[in-house]
Specification:
156 residues; five-stranded antiparallel beta sheet; 49% helix
């Protein structure tokens, strides 16, 4: 009889230990999933904030470029035409390494002048932590000159 009680007790202890181990494994699994979801939410929010900040930079630089465009040449402006070197000096932002764009806290903004200086195109590249620095922000700002002065087109 003692032998039978001992076997039953061992079986009960084994089941109890198995339940604890199962509970421990399930708890670790749930915590891992929760951490993974939290990191994904954080990175998504970071990407969204970085993109929005870069779009705001593009709008600000665009408004400054429009002021340059409308300012007469005699006052240091563009006189109804965009000229890249003078525009970059007017904007007073740090230049990128290749002097083709501007550097802001939120990334890099390339400026392209099209149609003989009458159309300006901005393209932003994200540059914040957690985001690939080569990832393009899908926001372009095109400013048209004499055809439609001051009209701003945003393509996302």
């Amino acid at each position: 009889m003692d032998r039978m009680n001992q076997i039953i007790r061992q079986d009960r202890d084994f089941r109890f230990g198995s339940q604890q181990l199962l509970f421990l494994v399930l708890s670790i699994f749930i915590v891992a999933i929760t951490v993974s979801v939290g990191v994904n939410i954080f990175l998504t929010q970071l990407r969204t904030q970085s993109r929005n900040a870069l779009i705001l930079d593009i709008y600000y630089i665009g408004s400054q470029a429009l002021a340059y465009y409308r300012t007469p040449v005699e006052q240091g402006g563009g006189g109804q035409i965009w000229e890249k070197t003078a525009l970059l000096n007017w904007l007073n932002f740090p230049l990128s390494a290749d002097s083709d764009g501007l550097l802001t806290e939120n990334g890099r903004i390339n400026i392209d002048i099209l149609h003989q200086g009458h159309k300006l195109l901005f393209t932003g590249y994200a540059g914040r932590a957690g985001i690939n620095s080569r990832a393009i922000v899908n926001a372009h700002l095109a400013m048209l000159g004499p055809e439609e002065p001051g009209r701003v087109i945003v393509q996302e």
